[in-house]
Amino acid sequence: MPGSFKTEAVVLRSIRYGEADRVLHLYSANRGRLGAVAKGVRRVRSRFGGRLEPMARVKLVLHEGRGELCTVTQADTVHAHAGLRSRRDSLERGVQACDAVLRLLDTTDPNPPAYNLLCHELALLDVEPRAAARAQALAFRAKLLLAAGFAPELASCASCGEREHLSGFSPSAGGVVCSACEAGAFPLDAEAHSFLVEAMARPLPDFPSASEPALRQADRALAETLEHHAHVRLRRVAA
Ligand SMILES: [Zn+2]
What we know:
The protein is α+β, with helices and mostly antiparallel strands. Helices cover 34% and strands 25% of the residues.
């Protein structure tokens, strides 16, 4: 039904459209994924200024017509994340975070934990240069899987329920596996296992640290869980 509505959203991606417009992929607080056209946004004297850049958190008024895309009629900045944009490594992590949300959360079902997580991640990257570390990016990804309903089983063997001798990770079983159920699994050392457990349990700014080999294993566990269960392929989190 045509009409206008208000929402808060993060701009995940912005694509040139026509002479002066852009199509925005938005992740909104109360309507999940939305697509919207920002008319005239590429003109020098656009009424939106630079407020609709990727990674910006904005308050929007959107007009819903008959087509698939809404039209942006008003945009106010909640958080521009200027600090994040000033550092290349922070910027890359911010782009990665938005890309992960873009691929993983593609329905109009609202997911407030996922929305809040993305907002916290961008705000953290904005103020804390050390948050551009690989361990932090993986902690965000682990928490995003949790928010999206794809968290791997980490407490006991995903095949038989055994709580001891957990030595591997099986993407098809959906989590850690014991030494008796290792077929089709790859090694997940104790350090990588506890990294994943702590990453999901702790608040984002208190992300755990681990050695590079452990982070590589954790990265693989998260990526292959998504490939297997969400049919989503994310780029691995580079060091
Ligand atoms: Zn088992």
